[in-house]
Each structure stands twice: as C-alpha cells, then as structure tokens.
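I am writing to request your help with a piece of structural work I have in hand. Here, with my thanks, is the record as I have it:
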Amino acid sequence: MTNNLIIFSSFIHSDLKEKMDRFHSIYKAMDQSTNGNIISFLMDDNGEIIGYNLHGNKLNSLFFGPSHPCVWHFENKDVVSVEHLPDGRVIRRLFRRLHPRKKCDRFLTAILNGTSISEKSINYYTASLYDSVSQFVEEQEMDAN
C-alpha cells in the first residue's frame, strides 16, 4: 500500500492557514486580564455541574482544555466548550468569571462535595464572559470581511 497525497491539499494550504491565522490573531488579542479568575464548570450529560477548573485571569485561557486547544461557542450569554477526548469521552465546560469580591470557598466546596448547584448560585458567584469574549470575535469577523 502506498501513501497517497492528501486530497485536500488545497484546503490545507489555504483555508486551514487562514483559520489558523485567525485563531492566533484572536488568541493574541485575548491576552488580557479579567476582573476575577476564570472558572470552567465540568458538566455531565444532564447539565449538572460535576467539577470545576480554575484558569487564572487571562481571557485566552479559554482556549485550553484536556484536548488542547479546545473549541468553544456561545450559548445565549455563556461561553461553552465541548471537547471530544481520544478515549471517546465528551467533556462539556461552561466558562464564567468568579466575582473577585465574593467569598467563593463554600460554593466551590459544594461542587466538590457533589451538591447540586442552582443557576441562582452560579449567577451570584460568577459572571458571564460573553461581553469580554464576543468583542474579540466580532472584531476578527469585521477584519475578515
């Protein structure tokens, strides 16, 4: 069996390069600090929070998950990623920003203890990243046109 040339070589050399350039441009633009650390909530198939990761306060930390880089999208005013791992598992993450002036220890401990977390609690202790992130995506889309 011989190795054939990749059929999509034109796609790889033009479209992929364009997409990678856009990714790097957004990544570089998002190298900015937020007012509070970024948290990603790990979600199960039913949408229940089963864990969390803290990512520091840089917006571009959204790009990294177990399957580096992760791909995220907007759902209403939330930033969400769905990552497909090599072992077949799928990890869904909800990215938010912790309020810097609120004591979050009990909230985070409740997550680790498996306590069901209400949307009200999530909104009390965290804020959406939509406004911070969407501006970079919109700027890149305008630059691309």
Q: What stands out?
A: The two ends are 44 Å apart (CA to CA).
